């Protein structure tokens, strides 16, 4: 009998987050004897490559697809045709729009992840939060959904009026110095931070889309001697990021669990291939929540968190 | 005055009785010679050979590859690149380059969608307006290039950014969902329909691409306008001196390219169902279409090559991508191998050309 | 004497530090063959480029049939009936002989194929091209579909000359049409020039070949250092005189040194 | 034999006494003429004028712009593009194009970092090895282009993908953190150090970029090798017939470009602190460097332009980006306006050239 | 008779359907001026391109000083001392006159600037270029730093001829060197050719100008339809004979029709 075939399709495979997700899936697949093929887009937001990947999976006769969608609404038709071909489609990390377009969703709530760091930053600053100077280091001008959710979550947590919650950059709060895009890497974080510092040297809160961007922003702050007096917050919870919490580079980060999502997904596909069972969502939610945890060494009241030592045990690479 | 002839150049007397027959040489007609000659006369056949070879190799590597459904999937995957490639072909033939093709396509798909949804314009009218706007965007490129004499690379680099960010701003980053399109403006999804002859689904979009390639090939080869496009790319100054209205041709070419891009934008709605401003064609469409054009043997210096070659170029890339996906390499290794295979394909192409000449 | 059909006064053309035309005058009368001779770099090509719109002079005035004209491009000049063979030939190297010969004046198939589908009539264009080339004695072209870039230097020049001669209407300008041509082919070009004149079309002929010039020209415009030095009648002056004038060895009568 | 002269061309008697002085014309020397002439002779001055004008405009629009710190920030932001631009300049001068510059830079920075960390090679040796490997990658491009006669666009498109995915595979997508680099291999961060003359921080990287531009400018203008680079780009066949070893020059040019990219990779470590395989330069470095080259007035058809122009081109882009960020807020609009301004800058450049000729 | 310095037997060169050389033979003897004449497209340029490595013949053998050679590129031929002026001139249009003249043999500054920094000696190169051009009578070049593409047709040819004549060592090949040149400049080139021969260097001269050919040539190779038809001595045949042979009007003695 042929082994069960499965696919994992990530947004890109250069972002460590997705790399780890793939590694988790691969490990689990090997354990369960599943033949796993992996695909990825070329740039963030690459919907076409994901459509092509789904088509390849269908052509290849896969049993299940794990998908982190780049464009949650645009991919729906392709997902439907995969399901029509009898394939179990599980959305990882990012829910589809509508969420029931996939058979199941194993996700973190990115908005909640953003809100946690927003609350933490606001609580850490205390009264000074009223006249904070905030730099927003986002992902890309095409504003993919993670980008918007994390950004808007942060702002809500910090207590800033969102304007249109489906779009970043339309906020009018004077505390925001500006938004810049970083492509989610050190280089982007650095150049974006330099530009914002030229605009207003008094920035004291920096939101970053992920930890590499945070590391880049830190370098820019260090260059002007402001690394001690500025709060940097981020999302992801990768091991270098947690290490950076320990070293005081990043103040707090929201940790997510890509390895877990992926291995749960593979298990679900194995179960489906065996007897057709589909996973059931977490109680009270329409998806399986794999959770998010605030990591910081400076806990504040009212926001649950763990320290970097604990975070390092849970981190994903 | 004939009396002067003798005076000025007496030696011309030797001309009397000069041979009047056109030079001819006998030639052996061995099979090899014939094949060589055929290849020499039909340069677009060379990428075809490379294509066939790669199909055979992948068929040996993966059982699922050489199937009608897989083939039709490859065709539908290259439909958009193929249409953008038509736009790129005419531009490159004039020794230009158009980096904005993908951005125009995505922007036009968004314009059609938004006109139909936000402004409630009937879908067919929205499509026509979208096509017209695409043509206008292309014509704007052409205007800057031919009237202000700016380098095409810079103009289209600039308009790429302009059209792409206009697209994000105009659409407020909102995707129009497939169900909504299907319900309210099904004609936007026209090219996503398919026929199903022997159980193999073939999208209308595929037929459209093939039709566009065929028409363009005819126009370039068999009409005066097509010859003028080649002449402009070959040597713009010479063409101008020879009586070609070069700057008009350049504007027309970019405008037509804009129209092709707008068509590609319409096809995108059909293929993906939804209308998404973040479609990566906006970012990558230019490189993809230029790749197809160059693999197809069209010179980036203008004036040489054929649109059929571009079509095979797009197919070669499509076959490689699908083949490697089915063989199941890791994405990074896939990118690595696609890079290597593209070089290899062109190397083989060059080698066949050399042997055949 | 009649009025000149093409007249220029005080033309100046500068390229950066280089002066190519230095207050140059020019007259072409109806139905004549006017030869323009001069040293290399005297400014002959620049003169006819200015007359045919290929370059814009910095100063000066051009009149065609009495009306002041300003050609922004060779296309405009051609619309006024001025047909040129430039020294650089103005060919599209990758296109075929027939394509080049008919560039901008393509023949279309008869019937719907031509009117609706605008299809070119390749066979007719090729036959015409072959005939014109045979008339010029270019019997060595084996393949009429050859790209122009693969032709020999002389063959290429022959194609350009055939094109201008076949289509010129009001004024035909030939810039060194026989430079690369062989003995037989040159002779045919001279015959052609006389043919064109006999159709009543005046010709400007630039050439370094004195016997040819003295054989066909009605008047000879001698160009020196960017200026018209003088105009001579070939019947009244020897070749030796002309050479002496154009190289500055002697100064013609009536011209200040 | 002189006796034959008379026989063959009697008219040559007229030659006796032909003038022997070199032609000269008097010329007015008005101020306008002089400026025109200077611009004509120094074409790289034109982008400089555009640059100065844009600095002035932005200084009027934003208070924060015309400050020493902002200026030094702009310089440090263009340091990497400037160095990649040097690589791109020599390649484009040979009528080539190098899409792999960014990928080589990132890959080399990763190679240096991994050699120092994973394999424990002493940092200075790791740097030397990294530079050598970068040169080798460039030479490989050059080999494919000059020996196999493949189009540069396709070769470097392929190697772009190859080097970039090799970079991800080799590094397993892992970033080496800034703190670790500073502790264990500080020489990797050499170019990130700065001097601080009047309270204005200027990175070593900026001086390196300026030095490279100056040296390259000298080499291209004042050595035989530089002239050969221009000749190859101008008309490769003619250069070959005239006795230039074209294929050797092409390989050398791409190898040197690889070396420049490797240097850029080293500079990246200094500038960003960390060693990251995902740096955007890998994706965008090629477009950014080509943009600088084209704005600087270098022709993509080869043989025309100067590296100084490229430097001003990079500065113009840097000034626009920083200026618009300081003036505006929304990144999408910033992106839009950068596109428009780039076109505008080149249009002004063309206009000045036209007026000055 | 001595042995030929450069000899070719049975050269064949085909381009697709076109046959440019059809079992062609060739001999050049030491110290002679050999003219090659023939109709346009007869294959003269193809012959010398094959001899100088610019194209590779499909069949046939070339011997230089008795040794069989195969030149893969013009560089190799030049390394053997064969210097060519091609009909297409082989100039880099955007570079200056001096740059083109010294391409591949640049002069460097004396002292460290030259040896260590490898700086070109611009003033010396320009002075040399100016001198060579003056020797050719090209007095109209106003700016020695002009790009070659801005030169007039004749000036450009002059630069190419000056380059070959200044540097040729074993064999100098000139493909229609006077085609675009004026009367004075052509005369200077003929003098130059004689100069070069008097240095003992043999010359191959392709030309359509019969008076010139008969004036300087020691032997005349008549090319027709891709073949060597015959070799004649200019003292024993008239120009008229030569023209008749090359155009096929008459068949020389001893050649089958
Ligand atoms: N674009 C240009 N830039 C600079 N100088 C130029 C340009 N075009 C022509 N010249 C100069 O102008 C002068 C006249 O050139 P022109 O081509 O008119 O000469 P010509 O009389 O046709 O010579 P020939 O007989 O060699 O063809 C020459 O000195 C030439 O170098
Ligand atoms: N690359 C090529 N492809 C096809 N045909 C070619 C090519 N090069 C030359 N030919 C053909 O070969 C023949 C000989 O050309 P060649 O240039 O040797 O003639 P030539 O004797 O030098 O003529 P001319 O006196 O006009 O310079 C011509 O018929 C020409 O059309
Ligand atoms: Mg001229
Ligand atoms: Mg020839």
Automatic annotation (TrEMBL), chains B, D:
Domain of life of the native organism: Bacteria
Keyword annotations from UniProtKB, A to Z: Cell membrane, Membrane, Transmembrane, Transmembrane helix
CDD domains (alphabetical): TM_PBP1_transp_AraH_like (cd06579)
Predominant subcellular localization, coarse grouping: membrane
Cellular component aspect of the GO annotation: plasma membrane
Regions crossing the membrane: 44-62, 74-93, 125-144, 150-170, 202-220, 249-269, 290-320, 332-352
A single GO molecular function term of this UniProt record: transmembrane transporter activity
Membrane topology of the entry: Multi-pass membrane protein
Localization per record: Cell membrane
Name this polypeptide is given: ABC transporter permease
From TrEMBL, chains C, E:
Coiled coil: none
Molecular function, one GO term: ATP hydrolysis activity
Pfam families, per the entry: ABC_tran
Gene3D superfamilies from the UniProt entry: P-loop containing nucleotide triphosphate hydrolases
Keywords on record: ATP-binding, Nucleotide-binding
Entry-linked InterPro entries: AAA+_ATPase, ABC_carbohydrate_import_ATPase, ABC_transporter-like_ATP-bd, P-loop_NTPase
PROSITE patterns: ABC_TRANSPORTER_2 (PS50893)
Residue span, ABC transporter domain: 6-250
PANTHER family per the UniProt record, alphabetical: CARBOHYDRATE TRANSPORT ATP-BINDING PROTEIN MG119-RELATED, SUGAR ABC TRANSPORTER ATP-BINDING PROTEIN
Listed name of the protein: Mannose ABC transporter ATP-binding protein /fructose ABC transporter ATP-binding protein /ribose ABC transporter ATP-binding protein
Native source species: Paracoccus sediminis
